[in-house]
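User: I'm writing a tutorial on reading structure tokens. Could you give me a worked example: one chain, its sequence, then its tokens, then a sentence or two explaining what the tokens reveal?
Assistant: Sure. Here is the example chain.
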Amino acid sequence: MLATRFLSLLGAAAVSAMAATYVVATRPDFTTASFEVGGPMLPYLSERAAKAVGIEGAHLNYGLTLMQRNSVWVAPELGNYPVEPETIANILSALAAMTRLEAKTNNPDWYGFIRVGGDEAPTDKRGIRMTVSAAEGEILGDLIVGRASGSIGYSDFGGTFVRAPSEDRSWLVQGGVDIPSSRADWFGQILSLPGVDLSSITVLRGDEVMLDVRKSAVGGASTYKFVSVSPEIAPAGVAVENQGIKSLAQAVVSVNFDDVRSREGLQVPLDARKVRFLTKGGLSLEATLVPADGKIWTLFDASAASESSATNLATTIAARVDRWAFLLEQRKTTLLATPLESLVAAPSLEVPLKTNDP
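And here are its predicted structure tokens:
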């Protein structure tokens, strides 16, 4: 059975009941009497940080549960999508390194000034609760992280106001912890294909190619030309609306997501919009738009021929996209859904010269 440990970011009262589901068993004595100025704020975590292998909780405007499975950090409620390991390591390291400098207020009416209020406090006075647990619910540390101190200019490490949830006394500690401001920031960028690297773009309706364009260099400038275009869209001989195609290419530059889920259970419509991007190095990336639950999800599929120089890149991207569906930033989804007619240049209108009747 997989041993799990949890680090909780608790910023809402609703999380308290959820956290209780996980945090059971051993709780060390975190009374202020056990604290000594100059010692670690979380002594158990400082000694045993390597035993923390999970994160669970909420940070004001988002909820999050993270666990370590087979040495990989994942988000179970997000289809077990992998988390940036560096983010986890930095947070655990920062918490473990916090050192007590000075005891502060124990008056709940003053908590709001240093943002160490608990779940019962208004949002603008509440801190971020962080509970680090080891196997079978053993708690390594439980802390409400408040605002940064502006009065420790002499310290390269800065200072932060904190409070143990079970105690009234707050503390000023040396050090700080950088908690991502949004849920997506825990996971990093999905992929990025700069427009300069693209060689062709194909738009499909299901398996039917609606238009296919290829990049060519003309006079030092890159433009796209049609390889094919469906007669449903435009007659033969029309030109590409290059600005529209270049805008479409921006859909795969610096791609982040607002939400992610497993692909399992998603039904891809037979006429789904698909956009296939091919790079000069031979990477093929296909984006498929799938409506579900009142949202438009995007499936990405990356591949490259075995002899291609893009094989490693394809493998890297595939590991981040193959099993998941993404709710992209609205701007990216809108670009992928660009109307086909806007990718075709309007025909030029020739106005006949007027002549005088004899």
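What the tokens reveal: Helices lie at 13-22, 43-48, 85-97, 111-114, 242-249, 311-321, 330-336. DSSP finds seven helices and 18 strands in the chain.
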